[in-house]
Structures are given as C-alpha cells and as structure tokens.
C-alpha cells in the first residue's frame, strides 16, 4: 500500500471542509477526485502533502505516519518520494525551463546526472517544451508554466504523484498531451492521485471519487 487515509477531517469553526474521509491507494493505482469548487478537494490534497494540518485523523505513506515526523523530515521525504503539481504552479524565476525541470533532481540526487539528463529530454519532448527550454518563467504563458511544473514533478520518478488541476491552465491540445503522459506513467507503475474538473482526465483513472461538502462518494464508471 502506498497511501492510507484514516478518518481525516479539517474543520474551520463549524465548517467541515473535509469530514471524516478514509481510503487507501495501492501501488500503480490511478485515483481521481472530482466535485464542485469549494467541496474540499484541494484542502484534502493539501493535508495529504503535509502542507496543511488536519483537525483529526491520520495519513500514512506505507508504514510512515506523517504526524510522527518533523517538518524537516517531511520535506526530505516529500522531495524524494512525492511528485507535486499545484493548481497555481510557481517556478524559480531566475532559472530556465530546463533548469527548473532539473532542479528537484539536483536537490535529491536519486539518479546519476546522465540519467537525469535523459529523463529531462524525454519530458521536454513529450510536453513539447523544446522551443522554450532556455526561456525564463517571466516570458512564459500560464499554460507553459504549468507544463514545466508537470515535467518538474515527474523528473525524480516519485512513488506517488499528487496533482491539483494539472490541466487547469491548458488548452485542449496540451490537456491531451498531459492526459496521455500521465496515463503512460501510470501504465509503467506510477501511482497517481489527482483533483480535477477535467472529466477526460478523470475517466482515465481506475477509481473516481466525487467530493461534496467535505464527504466522499465512489463513482461507478
């Protein structure tokens, strides 16, 4: 098992943003969470990443209980094992597209440099970033920034990819590129949990949950 969520809740006063959610994700699963804005999807994902604390409940990555480790240990674990794509991605302003993609690789050192270079070339090609590889973030469109952030999240071949609206800033053509890339990575063993309004993306998932008012319902495909 890659991830276990046990009775997880997040309350803001009397508002239950996430209300007692439990589910498991196994190796190579592809899970999508859909639902209207304000239903608690992003709050749930933020708690799973460890960037937002829970009011109650526990999060386990394999046998590691998130609440039992320090912030520093969590940051190191996240860098090595979790790929993160946020709805509003930020790149390092003084680094080029290629350098931003390679940055997690340099920080973690999970593979040899040549292997990282090959992985970077594959991602740049797959996401059609070759014409902007040397440009700085200030010259990029929102869609180009998002595509770069997706490549950055995948460069370390994480144990699990957590993605919040990965196709949110993309046109239909680039959304299809991302859909195919995520499906390909999943077929090769990457575990994926994503939040999305894009039903084309969601229906590639093996399991779909609909979230409303902080609660979960499994969708029968």
UniProtKB/TrEMBL annotation:
A Pfam family matched in the record: ABC_tran
Keyword Nucleotide-binding: yes
GO-annotated cellular components: plasma membrane
TM segment ranges: none
Start and end residues of each ABC transporter domain: 3-220
Taxonomy, superkingdom: Bacteria
Keywords carried by this UniProt record: ATP-binding, Nucleotide-binding, Transport
Example GO molecular function: transmembrane transporter activity
Record keyword Transcription present: no
Stated name of the protein: ABC transporter ATP-binding protein
Organism field: Leptospira neocaledonica
